[in-house]
Amino acid sequence: MSRLALLTPLALAACAFDGSGLARPGQAHDAAVAPDSPSLHHEGVLHDGGITVLEVTTLQTVTGSGSCAEILGCVFLKDCDWNTPCEQPCLAKGTPEGKAAYAAVHTCEDTATAVCGSACQVVESTSCASCVDAHCQKSHLDCGSTFSCKETYDCFQQCPKGSLPCRETCVGQATLQSLFLFEQLWICLEECGYACGQSCQDPFSGACITCCQPRCAEPQQQCGL
């Protein structure tokens, strides 16, 4: 199970900001495009959860200052598939260490579904997410992806208004199970937001949580709110 399987219907990856918080799905995010440059092919044997995988990853030679979590959150919120042009601007943000840790997460999550077997019979499930998190514990830890659902939500709330990079980092720091629970909360808040109007102008505000509590009690509870 890959975290890229999550939040697809929400198009969180296409989030942009219109000055009032997290924008509605479908709005374009003008990410910086990585300059044309030769690609660096990195090959190595990655060890995680007892599995040895030969990883061949194309990384931009452009070096940024971003951590693994920042790269991961950027790729996730842009709704990029692994190893596609969409991914390259996010990789360009990262340090060599961040890129290497990101590649390890990519490899482990892509192979973990088969290892988890019956737990991932339904890929988008808490049982599958939990198993993948356990299998990929080392790569997630090395990437800084340790946040619970509540910590992810709290991180979103603390981001400056209009800061997509901040929310990218929040998402990148979440475990896979946390993202699954966060997805359920997001869906409910989005559906409830039409009824709550101004209270849910930012679906991650305290006002929206309060207004939607009768309708979203279960996902709020599962997220630890």
Q: If you had to describe this structure to a student in words, what would you say it looks like?
A:
The structure is a single chain. The chain has one domain (3-182). 47% of the residues lie in helices and 9% in strands. It is built from ten helices and two strands; from the N terminus they run ββαααααααααα. It has helices at residues 68-77, 88-92, 96-116, 126-135, 137-143, 149-158, 164-172, 176-196, 206-212, 217-222, and strands at 39-48, 51-60. The protein has a two-stranded antiparallel ribbon. Strand 1 (39-48) and strand 2 form a beta hairpin. The longest helix is centred in the middle third of the chain and has 21 residues, at 96-116.
Structural features:
two-stranded antiparallel ribbon, 9% strand, 10 helices, single chain, 225 residues, mainly alpha
User: What is the tally of beta strands?
Assistant: 2
Helix content: 40-55%
Number of domains in the coordinates? 1
Specify the number of helices.
10
The radius of gyration computed from the alpha-carbon positions, rounded to a whole number of angstroms, is: 17 Å
Q: What's the multimeric state? A: single chain
Q: Segments where pLDDT lies below 50 for 5+ residues?
A: 7-61
Shape label: globular
What proportion of the residues form beta strands (DSSP E)?
5-15%
Structural class category: mainly alpha
